[in-house]
Amino acid sequence: MSKKTWHTISPPERRRVYVYPTGATCIFHGVTRVGISESGTHYLDLADGKKIIVAPGWRVIELDVDEWTF
Question: Which residues, at least 6 apart from 16, have a Cβ–Cβ distance to it below 8 Å?
């Protein structure tokens, strides 16, 4: 597992948009913390408690968990 660098965002972001080379987008609201791994994968904590993974090469996974478990 690669090491992550975490950044707390205060106040939370109103909107974060990931745009892919194909033109597809993923939009997230209320981002409070971002973890960026050595591979470029982004781990997002949202104000509503959701956890999101945005990785190069595919779009997104949304997790309904209390804490990161890995």
Answer: 27, 28, 29, 31, 44
Read off the pTM: 0.80
d(CA 13, CA 42): 15
Look up residue 51 and give its amino acid: K
Domain ranges of the chain: 4-63
* pLDDT tens string 1-36: 468 889 999 888 988 888 888 888 888 999 999 999
Query: Looking at the DSSP assignment, which residues form a beta bridge with residue 54?
Result: 42
Residue 9's alpha-carbon distances to 38, 39, 57, in angstroms, are 20, 21, 25
